[in-house]
Structure formats: structure tokens, C-alpha cells
What we know:
This protein has eight helices and nine strands. By secondary structure, it is an alpha+beta fold. The termini are far apart. It has a single domain (10-276), classed as 3-Layer(aba) Sandwich (oxygen-dependent coproporphyrinogen oxidase). The longest helix is centred in the first third of the chain and has 27 residues, at 10-36.
Amino acid sequence: MADLPTPLDAQQAAARGWFELLRDRICAEFEAVEREAGSDARFDYIPWDRVEPSGEPGGGGVRGVMKGRVFEKVGVNVSTVGGTLEGEFGRTVHGAGDDPRFLATGISLVAHMANPHVPAVHMNTRFLVTTKRWFGGGADLNPPLPIAEDTADFHAALKAACDRHGPDYYDRFKAWADEYFYIPHRHVHRGVGGVFFDHLERAFDADFAFARDVGETFLDIYPDIVRRRMGMPFTDADMAAQRIWRGRYAEFNLVYDRGTLFGLKTGGNIDAILMSLPPVANWD
């Protein structure tokens, strides 16, 4: 990965180290699921470098992608980028209105599954530094064919994590997810929700602990849901429903997703940014 404009401080280095460790653990667990299904699929890791408009190095990341028997396409990316935010977009970023310098480090994950009974999923956590410092992220379940037990278990796990850090966290961040993960032009949510949070800028240690707990909770609950559903039989009609749903998912990520916009506006790796798009989708 290319150098950053300035060295990481202790908080930035701690966050980056955690995101990269979480990536390793998630990828190892997903590969274990593939082995249980009789597949030898593994993640391919592709590093990329970011360059500032001035030509100076601006950090970079590693794109991890696996295509297997259970995970039709899953991307787990980590990146640490920094430099100067450009133009009008920079003035919209929290804390960058008067000073465009920034540092962003995080993990982003999207999984699209071969069996339509296995829910797709999104998870990300990130630490951003401008003139302010904050954590953001979340996790949400995106089943083409929702199953009530899976939805309940996913939300119960996230609620338990939230309750460990703030009595109002789950209600606030669930409502935020319901508002955010919505496709206005379709008048539908893209999935069954989860939690979404941004601009957490209390004490670093408290917010970092919460971000870690979201990652740990995801790693605990989602593979269990995958294992319980990956062997279920499905029909051509189930597959057709999955592909229509994937079209909706693609629309959200291309039109409304903040992470997609941030990556594109800050010179991120295009393939890493668009790894969230499904491998096959229909619009009719």
C-alpha cells in the first residue's frame, strides 16, 4: 500500500490494525463455511494504491474477493486513505468545511449468496479524521426471501451489542438503518434492517469499543445464519425472486449509498468500491 501524507497517530493505527484483523478473521470463517460445503474456494487479495490529485501518495487498501459454492460473490475490503478532500464534496464531509485534510480507515463487506434462502449481508465500520474524529458504520441483513427466525436472531444479536454500550443505541441506530437503507424511487427497504450509525465522537475508547463490538457481533451471528440455510432446496421461482431483489440492491448502492459516493469522490479503487454489486441481477 502506498504511503500516507502524514504518519498515523496512535488512535488511527489502533483502528486500522483492528479493521485488518477483523478482515482476516471474517475471511477465515467464510472460507471455513465453503470447506464445509465441499468447496475449496479462497479469497483473492488484491492491493491497490491511492494517489492524490497532486501526485502525492494517498494510502490505499486491499480488496478481498471470493466466489464459491455458498458465497456466490463476497467482498471484504480494508483501506486506509488520506490527503485532501476536493471542492464542494469536501465541504459536505463532517469537520472538513474549513480544513480539507482527512484520514479514513475501515472495513467494508458485502456478501451475495448462491442459495436464495441465505440472506445477503452488508457490514462496515470506519474511523474518519478531519478537524473532528468519529466512528461510523453498521450491519444490515438483506434476504431476497426473508425468514422471520433469521431476522429476529440478527436483530437480537445487534441489540445485545448495542445495549452493552448505550441504553438508547439499538432504538436509535435501528431507526437510522430503517431510514437510510430505503429506496425512495421504489418505496421499499432494501432488506430487513439492522443498525446504522455515524459521527460517533464521544471518547475514542468508548466509540472504538462499540465499533469493535459491532464487528464481533456480525462475525458471531451471520455465519450461523448462513450454515442453517445454505443446504435448503430452492426453485427457479426462488432464483428469479433473488435476481429481481438484487436489482433493487444495485440501485440503492449506485444511487444512494454514502460509501460508494465517498469512495468515488476521494479517488478510491473502482473495483473495490463496486464490489458491493451482485454478480447477476434482473430488472424484469
